[in-house]
C-alpha cells in the first residue's frame, strides 16, 4: 500500500530555518577557525590524480572531543562539546522506561537502575560515560555488559543528555585541523580536498572550492560525527554538505515509509530518540525522505564523497535497497566514478566497504587461525567484552561473499592494519577471493587509487601491506602468496590478468620511522630476520608462518627495520586442521 505523506510545511519551514541558522553559525565558527588556525598546505603532499582515497582509519585530529591530539596550549571556546554526558536520575529513567525499546527490561533490572540513580544524588544529573558505567556497575557489576545490543544502546540513547547553548542549539564538537600534533591526518584531509577541487575544475576551470559530501552511515548513530567531518573539510578548503543517507533512510525511501523513519532508525540503524538531541539533522533527513530527488541532485553536484568509519555493513546497506540491489543513489555515484567526475574517500569501514571482492566484517588474525574465515554474519563487537549469545565466536573472522560497494575492483581491503596485526586474516581471506589480491591499510595512512591507469600509491604516516597471487591448498591446509609493504611515496601498477603488482617503485630517499608511533612492527621484524637468515619460520601455535625473500636484491631494498619491501614469499601452514 502506498502511503501518502503530507508534511506540515509551517513546522518544516521552522525546522529548515533552524538548519539555516545552525549552518550559518557553524560557517562563522569555521571561518574564525580558518582565520586563526589555517591548515599548513605547504606540508601537504603534491596533488596527483586519483579516484579513490582509502584510509586505514586512525586519522588523528585535534578537536574538542580529542584534546590529546592537539598541540599544547590549544584552546577551544566555552561552548565546544567536550564529551557526551548522560543523565542518571529518577525522572530521566522514568521517561526512558516508557520507550518501547526498553519494554524488555524486567522489574529487577529497572530497580537496579533506579537504585544507581539514588546513589548518585545530585551528581547523577550529568555524567560522563565512564562515570555512568561505574555508577551502575557499583550496584550490579555485569549489568551493562549482560544487556543485549538493542537494550544497551537504547538505554544510552535515551539517557544521553542535551547540552544546550541556547534554545534549539546544542553544543557541537569543534575542530582545529592545523592544531593537530600529528599532521599526517590533516595532510590526508587536505589532499582529498585538493583532488575534489581538481575534479570540479574539469567542469569549472576557475573554481576555487570543491563541494564535498559527507555520509556518516557507518556509525550506529550517524548524527554524532556530523560536526566533526563538516568542520574538517571546511577547514581544509571545501564547501561541505552532510547527506543524511543511512540504512534507515534508504529503507524508508524504498518502502515509501517516511512516517516510520524513527522506527526504522531503531530497527535497522540501531539508534533511538535522536530527534531530541539532533532536531535539525533529523528534520533534514525526514525532508529528504519525502523528497529523495533532492538527494539525487546533490549526488550529481558534488565533487567529492567521504565515508566515515564504524561498521561497513551499515554503510553497505545505506547504498543498497532492502532487496540488496544497488539503489538509485549508488547508481549515480558509480556512474560518476566511472566517468572520473568525482573522488571518493573513506576511512576504516569507509575503506573496507569499497571492495568489489569479499568484504571483511570482523575480527582478528588469532581468530582466523583458530576458527578459519567464515562466510557468516559477524557477532556484535560487544561480544569480546560482554557475555553475548552468538553462534559465531567473538574473534572469528567473518566476511560477506557479496562484497562491498564495488568502487575498488582490485582486491580485498582491510584497515587498522599493522596496528591490529591483521596480516594473517587478510592473507587467508584474499586466498579465497576471486582475484587473490589483498590490500591492508595502516592507520593515519591512505592508499590512493587511479582507476583509469590501474595505479596505486601511498601517502601518510605508515604503509600499505599487499598480498598477491594468494592461494590455498588442502593437504596440508596451507596458504601461499607474495607480499609487499609500500610506504609514503611508493607506487605500483595493478595487473588484473596476473593478479599482481608490477612496476613497483619504492621511494629511494631515506625515510625516518617514528619509533614512538603506535604501530606494532613485529611482522616487519620477521621480514628483517628472513633477510638476514634467508628464511624465517615463525611458530604461531595453531600454524607455522614461513617468510622467504625471493632474492637478496629484494632484501637490499628494505629500509630501516623493514620500512618498505617487495616480492617476499609467504606461506602459512595450519596444524590440526
Tell me what you see in this structure.
With 577 residues, this protein is of the alpha/beta class. It contains 20 helices and 23 strands. Helix 17 (365-371) crosses helix 18 (423-432). The radius of gyration is 24 Å and the shape is globular. Residues 1-45 have low confidence and may be disordered.
Brief descriptors of the model:
single chain, 577 residues, alpha/beta, 9-stranded mixed β-sheet, 7-stranded mixed β-sheet, 20 helices, 20% strand, disordered N terminus
* Oligomerization category of the chains in this entry: single chain
β content, as a range?
15-25%
Question: Span between N and C termini?
Answer: 53 Å
Q: Regions with pLDDT < 50 over 5+ consecutive residues?
A: 1-45
Order of strands across the main sheet: 7-6-8-9-1-15-16-19-20
Radius of gyration: 24 Å
Give the CA-based shape.
globular
Question: Summed up, what is this model?
Answer:
The chain is an alpha/beta fold. The chain is built from 20 helices and 23 strands.
Tell me the layout of helices and strands.
Elements lengths: L8 H28 L15 E4 L29 E2 L3 H8 L9 H14 L6 E2 H9 L5 H4 L2 H11 L4 E3 L2 E2 L13 H18 L9 E5 L10 H10 L3 E4 L4 H9 L5 H9 L4 H4 L1 H12 L2 H9 L2 E4 L4 H8 L8 H11 L4 E5 L1 H4 L6 E4 L2 H7 L1 E2 L22 E4 L11 E3 L8 H10 L5 E4 L3 E6 L4 E6 L2 E12 L2 E11 L3 E5 L4 E6 L16 H12 L2 E4 L3 E7 L2 H5 L8 E10 L3
Helix pairs in contact: 1-8, 1-12, 9-10, 9-12, 9-14, 13-15, 17-18
Amino acid at each position: 500500500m502506498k502511503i501518502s505523506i503530507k508534511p506540515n510545511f509551517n513546522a518544516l519551514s521552522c525546522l529548515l530555518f533552524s538548519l539555516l541558522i545552525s549552518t550559518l553559525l557553524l560557517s562563522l565558527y569555521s571561518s574564525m577557525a580558518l582565520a586563526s588556525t589555517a591548515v599548513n598546505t605547504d606540508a601537504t603532499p603534491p596533488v596527483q590524480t586519483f579516484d579513490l582515497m582509502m584510509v586505514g582509519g586512525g586519522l588523528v585530529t585535534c578537536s574538542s572531543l580529542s584534546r590529546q591530539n592537539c598541540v599544547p596550549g590549544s584552546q577551544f571556546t566555552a561552548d565546544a562539546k567536550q564529551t557526551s554526558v548522560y543523565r542518571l536520575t529518577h525522572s530521566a529513567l522514568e521517561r526512558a522506561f516508557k520507550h518501547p525499546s526498553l519494554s524488555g527490561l524486567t522489574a529487577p533490572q529497572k530497580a537496579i537502575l533506579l537504585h544507581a540513580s539514588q546513589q548518585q544524588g545530585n551528581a547523577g544529573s550529568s555524567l560522563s560515560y565512564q562515570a555512568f558505567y561505574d555508577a551502575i556497575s557499583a550496584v550490579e557489576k555485569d549489568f551493562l555488559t549482560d544487556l543485549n545490543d538493542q537494550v544497551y544502546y537504547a538505554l544510552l540513547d535515551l539517557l544521553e543528555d542535551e547540552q544546550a547553548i541556547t534554545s534549539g542549539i546544542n553544543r557541537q564538537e569543534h575542530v582545529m585541523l592545523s592544531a593537530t600534533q600529528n599532521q599526517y591526518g590533516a595532510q590526508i584531509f587536505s589532499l582529498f580536498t585538493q583532488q575534489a577541487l581538481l575534479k570540479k575544475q574539469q567542469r569549472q576551470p576557475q573554481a576555487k572550492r570543491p563541494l564535498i559530501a559527507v555520509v556518516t552511515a557507518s556509525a550506529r548513530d550517524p548524527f554524532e560525527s556530523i560536526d566533526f567531518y563538516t568542520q574538517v573539510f571546511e577547514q581544509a578548503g571545501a564547501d561541505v554538505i552532510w547527506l543524511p543517507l543511512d540504512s534507515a533512510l534508504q529503507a524508508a525511501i524504498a518502502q515509501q515509509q517516511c512516517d516510520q523513519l524513527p522506527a526504522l532508525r531503531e530497527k535497522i540503524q540501531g539508534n533511538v530518540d535522536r530527534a531530541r538531541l539532533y532536531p535539525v539533522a533529523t528534520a533534514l533527513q525526514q525532508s529528504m525522505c519525502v523528497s529523495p530527488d533532492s538527494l539525487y541532485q546533490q549526488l550529481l553536484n558534488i565533487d567529492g564523497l567521504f565515508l566515515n568509519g564504524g561498521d561497513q555493513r551499515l554503510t553497505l546497506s545505506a547504498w543498497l535497497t532492502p532487496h540488496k540491489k544497488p539503489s538509485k543513489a549508488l547508481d549515480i555515484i558509480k556512474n560518476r566514478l566511472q566517468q572520473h567526475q568525482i573522488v571518493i574517500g573513506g576511512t576504516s569501514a569507509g575503506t573496507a566497504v569499497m571492495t568489489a571482492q569479499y568484504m571483511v566484517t570482523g575480527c582478528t588474525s588469532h581468530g582466523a587461525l583458530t576458527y578459519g574465515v567464515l562466510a557468516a554474519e559477524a557477532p556484535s563487537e560487544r561480544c569480546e567484552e560482554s557475555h553475548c549469545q552468538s553462534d559465531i565466536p567473538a574473534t572469528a573472522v567473518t566476511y560477506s561473499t557479496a562484497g562491498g560497494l564495488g568502487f575498488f575492483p582490485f582486491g580485498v581491503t582491510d584497515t587498522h592494519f599493522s596496528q591490529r596485526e591483521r596480516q594473517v586474516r587478510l592473507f587467508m581471506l584474499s586466498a579465497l577471493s576471486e582475484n587473490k589480491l589483498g590490500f591492508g591499510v595502516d592507520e593515519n595512512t591512505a592508499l590512493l587509487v587511479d582507476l583509469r591507469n590501474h595505479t596505486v600509491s601511498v601517502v601518510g604516516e605508515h604503509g600499505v601491506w599487499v598480498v598477491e597471487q594468494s592461494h590455498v591448498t588442502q593437504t596440508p591446509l596451507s596458504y601461499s602468496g607474495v607480499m609487499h609493504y609500500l610506504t609514503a611515496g611508493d607506487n605500483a601498477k595493478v595487473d588484473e590478468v596476473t593478479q599482481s603488482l608490477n612496476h613497483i617503485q619504492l621511494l629511494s630517499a631515506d625515510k625516518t620511522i617514528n619509533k614512538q608511533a603506535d604501530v606494532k612492527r613485529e611482522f616487519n621484524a620477521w621480514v628483517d630476520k628472513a633477510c638476514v637468515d634467508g628464511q624465517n619460520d615463525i611458530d604461531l601455535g595453531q600454524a607455522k608462518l614461513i617468510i622467504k625473500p625471493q632474492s637478496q636484491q629484494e632484501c637490499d631494498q628494505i629500509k630501516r627495520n623493514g620500512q618498505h619491501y617487495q616480492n617476499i614469499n609467504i606461506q602459512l601452514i595450519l596444524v590440526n586442521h
